[in-house]
């Protein structure tokens, strides 16, 4: 094993879940146990049990510049659906056991933080990718994270924004959102705008128009009329499919 580097162990992660550290996202494999070669500074990791339509659960952590490479340890909590602390990072003997485990999984179980990419100067060479994260997080401090996350573990979960994202929840009607506070104000403003455009410019912003129907002329005759300018649209203003006969162009 090469000389150890700053590492975070992510233990007991289920395979094929979404995992992300800073700007890199990936799905986990059964052999994945953590990330090595971490750079000093603040990092953010989140996990999600599926790649879409599930809660993201994450946390910030700090890697100091020290003589002995830092080691952080998190373990999957199936009930929570996220990674939690193991509670033994202050115990010297416990951490020695984790450091020994790092040696066991170093080659095949730990992913390097910086990925190997082709060199921009020579495509035949490979180099470590540039770490833009350090520049993005250079103003972050422990005080800032504690203030924003409202907890000492610097945990963040997308579950806290579920009520804000109601418009994205399948089955929830827009009218239900408008009935609550701010949505009603928006609805009134839009109705006022629609009325102004109708009075001043004759605009009709509704989504139901009759394109074909019977019209009574001045002499009483009934004729069928059709609006050809809306032929490419249906009654709700969306483009209708057009069937093309390729045999008879």
UniProtKB/TrEMBL annotation:
Residues 5-148 form the AAR2 N-terminal domain. InterPro entries: AAR2, Aar2_N, AAR2_N_sf. Pfam families: AAR2_1st (PF20981). Residues 1-19 form the signal peptide. CDD domains: Aar2_N. Keywords: Signal. It comes from the Eukaryota. The keyword Hydrolase does not apply. GO terms for biological process: spliceosomal tri-snRNP complex assembly. Residues 230-249 are annotated as: Disordered. PANTHER family: A1 CISTRON SPLICING FACTOR AAR2-RELATED, PROTEIN AAR2 HOMOLOG. This is AAR2 N-terminal domain-containing protein.
């Amino acid at each position: 094993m090469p000389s150890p580097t700053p590492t975070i162990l992510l233990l007991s992660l289920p395979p094929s879940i979404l995992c992300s550290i800073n700007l890199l996202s990936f799905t986990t494999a059964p052999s994945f146990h953590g990330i090595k070669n971490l750079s000093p500074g603040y990092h953010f990791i989140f996990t999600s049990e599926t790649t879409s339509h599930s809660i993201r659960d994450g946390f910030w952590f700090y890697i100091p510049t020290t003589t002995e490479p830092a080691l952080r340890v998190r373990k999957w909590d199936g009930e929570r659906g996220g990674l939690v602390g193991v509670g033994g990072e202050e115990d010297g003997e416990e951490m020695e056991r984790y450091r020994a485990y790092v040696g066991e999984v170093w080659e095949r179980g730990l992913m390097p933080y910086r990925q190997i990419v082709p060199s921009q100067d020579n495509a035949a060479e490979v180099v470590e990718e540039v770490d833009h994260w350090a520049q993005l997080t250079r103003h972050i401090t422990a005080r800032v994270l504690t203030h924003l996350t409202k907890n000492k573990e610097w945990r963040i979960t997308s579950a806290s924004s579920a009520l804000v994202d109601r418009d994205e929840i399948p089955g929830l009607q827009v009218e239900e959102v408008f009935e609550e506070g701010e949505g009603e104000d928006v609805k009134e403003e839009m109705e006022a705008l629609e009325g102004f455009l109708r009075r001043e410019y004759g605009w009709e912003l509704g989504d139901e128009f009759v394109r074909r129907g019977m019209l009574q002329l001045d002499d009483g005759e009934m004729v069928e009329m059709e609006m050809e300018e809306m032929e490419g649209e249906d009654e709700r203003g969306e483009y209708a499919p057009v069937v093309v006969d390729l045999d008879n162009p």
